[in-house]
Amino acid sequence: MITVEHTADLxxxxxSAVRSLLDSAYGGPFAxxxxxxxxxxxxxxxHDGPAIVGHAALVQRRLLHGGRALRTxxxxxxxVCPSHRRRGIAAALMGELDRLLRGGFELGALAASEQAVGLxxxxxxxxxxxxxxxxxxxxxRPTPDEDGIMxxxxxxxxxPASVLVCDWRDGDVW
Length: 174
Known about the structure:
The chain is α+β, with helices and mostly antiparallel strands. The chain contains four helices and ten strands. It is globular. The mean pLDDT is 97.
């Protein structure tokens, strides 16, 4: 069963269970900055009985492109308990996020690991082939080493010849 809740509605035991799940899914401590990136938006939770075995978050960010600040649904902290992988849980969670994306954003974006690119591609996401940058406290700085940025245009029209700029945050900017 999947539930969708805003961060504000996650009680302390649920937040703790999700954080533990992400530690397990990512093979070690899930970084504090990465956890912070997943907060403040919507969480899709996959339940197996009382246990949460899958999680994906969608938070709002502003990505700059073509002279516009695009209202972007950014996918964060997608993880499935290792014992429950290869059962379609991540795809089901992304299906819930897709509904939210299409209902409220101009663009979807995420930073995919190598092993997850195939999943996202099968759901209609495409790898961004243009240049990337971050709007830092010191101005716009290129992020040429960022691989695996994927996008899902909802109403936004993207030009890969133009830079895609993310807003600033602590930790990994993308």
